[in-house]
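Please fill in the sequence for the structure shown.

STRUCTURE ENCODING:
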């Protein structure tokens, strides 16, 4: 089977795609952004990239930034249209299946083309905020309701989004619910999983941009700083919005803030952490939550639309923040997690012995490939 993947570049897309390396399928990649860049360590993946500009001339970024009117005059002449480039590539490789990752990024721009080629099966992979958030914005919802009836198959990272998709017009076949980046190489990370007595880090995801609410966690931590002396508080993945808000705080000298880290560094940090906190008002199944589970950190996680409750049983193997703006709730959960040793120990046992094995890369890959092999195509 020829599979054409349509997506922007991301670590999660790369990890998902790696599952297909030894699948026996021919795999192609159309970079929907059309910009410079490739996956150099994936020679088995045929890639269509760097197609957007007829001439990516020196000084283009400078011209766009400081002389936008001039840039907009030449833009129609210099930029290729995604639908035309995609259709040409579609004809060139003649795939059996097209798989689009994230609706508004990779489905909507090629909808008119896919409607012309009904003989090609179309898979949609829903990630993160894709449906849960954007269904509430009229312009996006219109696109969602135009796209979903045309989709033949669907993957998602949580059951919640399967239900939303069906409500908004999806009538195809569900291929399964899997982590957005596939499974995890547990044997590679097990050496970094420390025992509970060895852990003293409270780890916070520093995501404040658009959907994130990390600053609410910081507010809660500052209010209980007197009981945090035995612990090291670390924020990772802090974005610009986080830094802008964080610098206005006082009494935050006990917090260490890190920017973007390598994926392997995040996992090692998780393996040293007693508690992990992720807080946002919109998300799917957070990959960092899954990583906290496999690395043994006690998870405190927001629960937009009930997605997180699909894996966290509140008060048993973690705690669910139902209101991401409620600093008092976050503070109470932190105190609970720090003071209740039995809760942490039971959660560690449950997550390590029951949930973690379900996230193993070989198991997930086999399930994903079985789903691909079930696809009916002409």
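FILLED IN BY: designer on duty
SEQUENCE:
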């Amino acid at each position: 089977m020829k599979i054409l993947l349509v997506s922007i570049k991301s670590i999660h897309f790369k990890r998902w795609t790696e599952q297909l390396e030894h699948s026996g399928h021919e795999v192609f990649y159309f970079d929907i952004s059309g910009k410079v860049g490739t996956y150099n360590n994936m020679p088995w993946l045929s890639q269509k990239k760097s197609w957007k500009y007829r001439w990516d001339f020196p000084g283009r970024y400078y011209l766009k930034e400081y002389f936008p009117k001039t840039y907009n005059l030449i833009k129609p002449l210099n930029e290729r249209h995604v639908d035309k480039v995609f259709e040409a590539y579609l004809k060139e490789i003649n795939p059996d299946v097209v798989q689009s990752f994230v609706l508004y990024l990779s489905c909507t721009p090629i909808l008119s083309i896919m409607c012309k080629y009904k003989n090609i099966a179309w898979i949609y992979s829903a990630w993160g905020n894709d449906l849960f958030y954007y269904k509430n914005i009229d312009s996006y919802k219109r696109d969602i309701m135009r796209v979903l009836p045309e989709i033949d198959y669907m993957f998602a990272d949580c059951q919640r989004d399967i239900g939303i998709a069906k409500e908004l017009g999806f009538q195809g076949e569900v291929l399964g619910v899997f982590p957005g980046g596939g499974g995890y190489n547990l044997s590679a990370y097990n050496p970094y999983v420390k025992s509970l007595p060895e852990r003293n880090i409270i780890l916070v995801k520093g995501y404040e941009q658009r959907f994130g609410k990390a600053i609410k966690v910081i507010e809660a931590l500052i209010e209980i700083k007197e009981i945090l002396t035995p612990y090291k508080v670390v924020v990772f993945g802090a974005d610009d919005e986080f830094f802008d808000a964080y610098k206005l705080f006082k009494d935050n000298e006990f917090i260490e803030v890190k920017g973007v880290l390598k994926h392997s560094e995040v996992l090692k940090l998780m393996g040293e952490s007693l508690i992990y906190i992720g807080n946002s008002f919109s998300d799917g199944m957070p990959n960092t939550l899954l990583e906290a589970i496999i690395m043994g950190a006690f998870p405190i996680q927001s629960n937009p639309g009930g997605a997180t409750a699909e894996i966290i049983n509140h008060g048993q193997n973690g705690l669910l923040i139902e209101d991401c703006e409620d600093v008092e709730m976050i503070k109470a959960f932190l105190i609970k997690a720090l003071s209740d040793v039995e809760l942490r120990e039971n959660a560690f046992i449950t997550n390590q012995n029951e949930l973690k094995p379900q996230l193993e890369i070989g198991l997930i890959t086999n399930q994903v490939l079985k789903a691909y092999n079930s696809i009916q195509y002409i």
